[in-house]
Write a structure and sequence with these properties.
With 169 residues, the chain is mainly alpha-helical. 66% of the residues lie in helices and 0% in strands. The chain has a domain of 117 residues. The radius of gyration is 40 Å and the shape is rod-shaped.
Amino acid sequence: MGVLARITSSTQKKGGESNSLATGTHAIDKDKVLAATDPTVINPLQTGTWETIRTAPVNHTPRYFNKAEADALKATATRSQQEARQTKRAYKSLKKIENADAQVHAAHRGYIRGVADSELVKKRSDAATARHLHALRPEYARMGAGLDRAENNANARIAEIKAKVKSNY
């Protein structure tokens, strides 16, 4: 594509910018690239709630507990310890799931980069082939002109023969 064709191309954006890959422009939106994978995921712009868990209220002043309160607190403490063990297991599993998701995500992005690299190799090859075909055009034009001359010469010779035959008969 010539300079004039590029300037007047229909691939022009408003403001005169071309959106062709051949001009080096891009459609990489950094906000999309850096967007969170989930609206609730923690990141510097979404820091989470900072909530915590508190099974029993804080005792700010000393006090006595009766047997029923002590028994209830002991049962709650036992249940909390058991649930804490199960909660730790669950969070450990959730962390493993997140790590597996991250590995799949990273592997997929590596694949996508490979696809992009392969596309570039393919387009380079296409461009090289197009340049080669352009380089062949002059020879084809010479051959075409030669064939036109041969056709004109043959037609002239045929016309001469026809004229000669007509004059003899």
